[in-house]
Every structure is written in structure tokens, then in C-alpha cells.
Amino acid sequence: MKFDGFLVAMLMAVALALLWPAPGAADGYLHLGVITQVGVALVFFFHGVMLAPQAIRAGFKKWRLHLLVQLTTFVAFPVFGVLLYWSMRSVLSSELRLGFVLLCAMSSTITSSVAMTAMAKGDVAAAMFNASVSGLIGMLMTPLLVQVMTGTGQHMVPFSHAITGILMTLAVPLVLGQAMRAVLLPRLAPHKAWLNKLDRVVIVLIVYTSFCESTAAGVWASFAWLQLLLTALLALVLLGVMLMATRYVARAAGFSREEEIAAVFCASKKSLASGAPIAKILFVGHPGLGLIMLPLMLYHQIQLLVCTVLARRYARSAPPAQ
Length: 322
Known about the structure:
The chain is an all-alpha fold and 322 residues long. Helices cover 76% and strands 0% of the residues.
């Protein structure tokens, strides 16, 4: 496996927040709340510029594949989230249970879903369609699902405020990017690697500020670290169940090998790039935000490792090109 600088950066951000939380807290002198909000808007603006409408249209006709992916993302996952939230009350802290609700309500990730599908020699156009549409649906569905799954919504901002915040921070920059795609794409395309780095820098800053606020509020002082291992184990089990279930359904439905690959990778993934800013909007001011984000952070790393191995196995078993 390649050296993962992003993972190292997130771990360093967490460690720094635990040791020295004052600069990144809500009233810290770095004012990272404003910086991260601007950064998130820029990231989604650039996503809008890079998003190719023709690639999405090319994958539109395979409605059975799309139905499987979206139902898995926004129905099957939330069912597991509800089960975990209510069945783990005596085992996991309320913040970690909220974290699993957030994880299960999140949309699919775009970049790694498409990259893994391409690596495995699957249907890339269908993967691009599903991952992109999932992100758009998630802007509305994620806050709604979190509120419904927890049963009260008392842990988060009002639904109308959440939707307004998500639309202004994520959707509006995305639409503006699409509108300016023809003008900006020739200038930005050569710098795509740097734009991807901006995406990751913003995520690391959000992780840092979230853990700073949790540390300053004393959340980690009473944290049982055995719960960290249990959280990682539950994330691994959740990923394994979804990978096996989507592969089984895809084969039972008679999907082609390429369609099965797109279904498996798009339906099992959860987006940290969207999840981190959405979590800050939904749980603004919550002292346990760092803990709430922990299941999604762990799931994100586990899915990258497991799905990379799976994509390589798919690629090795691909029939030779004619």
C-alpha cells in the first residue's frame, strides 16, 4: 500500500487538537470557523467546474443500477444506522451513536468511487452518474435522515436552518461552478491535482477544529478508548455487510460485470468530503463534534484500504481485452 499522507495529516491534526486546542476552538485566535467555511465553498465551486454533465447523461439510462445504489445509500444504510443508534445505547456514547447515524445518512463519495471503479475495470460512466447524483441528493436527504433516525432532532440545528446552511455552503457554489464551467475548466484542468489537495486541506482543518472544540469542552477526559476499537470494528462490519449485499443483489439482478463493479463501489462508499462540512452545519456548537465525526473518519479510511484491495482483485479477474 502507498504512503497515505492524508491519513497522517488527519492523525496529526487530531493529536495537535488534543494537546493544544486553544487556537482552533470556536473562540480561538485562528478563526478557523470562517476559514473552513470559505474553504468548503471553494471546494464545492471547483467540484462544480470539474463535474462533466455529458458523463452523467451517459450513465442515466441504467436505471436498475442507479436504483440499487441510491436505495442502498439512503435506505439500507439508514436502517443499519437506526439499529446501531438504538441498540448500542448501553455500549457507545451518545456522540458516537450520533456519528453512526451521520455516517449511515451520508451520500456516496465521488472521487474514490469513480477511481475504484476505473481501477477494477468497471462501468465508469455509471459510477460518475451515481456518485454525483448521490452527492446532490445527500444535501437534502442527509439532514432529514439524521433527524428522522434519531427520533427527536434535539441534537442538531432545526431542519430548515440545516437545509439553508447546506444549500448556501455546498449547493450554491456547486451550481455557480457548473455555470462557469465553460470559462474556467480550460484554466483549472491542468491544476486538478492541486484542487484535490485543497479538498483534503479543508477536511483536515475541519477535523482539527472539531477536535479542538471537543477537547476544550472536556469531552475526551471521560472517553473510554475501548469504544474507539468498538467503533472501528462496527465500521468494518458495516462496510463488509454492504459490500457483500450489493454484490449479491447485483448478481441476482443479472448485472454485467462492469455494472456490478460500479454498484459495489458506489453503494458501499461514504463521503468524508461532504460529511465533514455537513456535520459542522448540523451539529454547530455541539461540544462532542469530534466524537460525532469519528465513525465517518474511521469508515473513510477503512473503505479506502478494503476497496483498494477489492478493486485490484476485480482487475486481475477481468477478461482480456479483445
